[in-house]
Amino acid sequence: MRTPDYTPLLNELADEHHRRSPRSATIHKEACRHLIDGGSHSIRLLEPFPPRITAAHGGWIDDEDGHHILDLWQGHMANVLGHNPEVVTSELAQAFDDGFGTQNGMADALQAELAELVCRLTGADRIRLTTSGSLATMYAVLLARSFTGRAVVMKAGGGWHGAQPMLLKGVAFRDDGVGFDGVDSQGLPSALTDRIVVTSYNDCQRLVDDFDKFGDELACLILEPMLGAGGTIAASTEYLRLARELCSRHGALLLFDEMITGFRFHAGGLGALHRVTPDLAIYGKALGGGMPVAAVAGRADVMAEAGRETGHRVAFSGGTYSAHPASMLAAKTFLLHLSAHEDEIYPRLGRLGAAMRAAFESAFAEAGISARCTGDIPELDCGSSMVTVHFPHDEAVKLDTPETVFDPLLCDIDLREKVLGLALLVEDVHLLLAHGAASTAHTDNDVDFLTDACRRAAERIAQHCRLDACTTN
Ligand SMILES: Cc1ncc(COP(=O)(O)O)c(C=O)c1O
Question: What CA–CA distance (Å, rounded) separates 264 from 398?
């Protein structure tokens, strides 16, 4: 299947974006003088320039040009209750008023209360807190290596575990035959990257084969229970249970990276809904209630590698802003709220997520474009707020592995990753790389707004494809 040349459409969309958003365009130009690419997180820097945000409430954001934008990105999917939920902001405002909130660099009761809460909700014995998922996955790998005395780590192709040296391999798909076997950054010594084995997500036979080859050298296998950046693909229960069994049999640790999935499907980790218990889990995003908090949580004997009892064998230490007071307060408040209102929050998220996925699919179908969304977890009845929109070339393509959704012969990647975001932004809808999530702050009216925006975007894309077909025939 030939992919259309989207260049004329992208140029047209970029011109419209410039016309509608002159202030964001100017700010971006200025920003590029001092900030690499005009910002500090590549994925946020939509091309040709991102909307510059002035406020964010619930399901919506406002930008410098006065646009009121429906937001499905929701803070890298951290915002389960939408932007700036009152339950958190009122606590923070009160604390700041009372002289508690900015950095103090001391121990306090709050972090102990948060730790108790996270352990209770996730089943972990002990945790340690840090400020980002990248740091947390890095520390988790160090803990696993130290505990097992082994060096090799296994991850799945398409798995993103943050910008840290231990796992920067097999994230991006390369269609030159390398697939998910490439190293994702310069600057990493081969002594590190040679110790990363990349297996295939949701491929049980390949997992068995890889454990046959590497199992006895493995410190750990790290998996997202649902791939986020790798296509929003749910792991099958069979795959996760097999991973558990193989790790136990070979003396390797099982790590679940629950950065996206933790507290998004219920007030705990997604692994628990599959009835699979990892040795360590990594939480972040939703954990912080909109503030920077991440944690490694798990078995007491493994976590002990970082503590006094083992002479701090692992330097899971430092972090000027670790367990920052305002972050601790936000996290504790947020988790208490999620667990107290679990029966309302998660069914609502699931219903809105399903409605959003249906909105994308039906609007594109009306325009004659086949769009299919991943994000649901067919085997579980927890519902799902997650969505990535894919454009498979063929109805028969199964979207259950990252190898499929990143193969340009099977899916239209340019439409998903370059066109859709900009085509929707000029309709006042924001998501990045066709990827986002519902929050409880979204409403049925928002789903209607999304449907109408998708209809207009889809019709425009379809028109372009018809023109492209005429000019190439
Ligand atoms: C599954 C997963 N792990 C780790 C990370 C890294 O977290 P952070 O961006 O907080 O460093 C992310 C971030 O998107 C993620 O999605």
Answer: 25
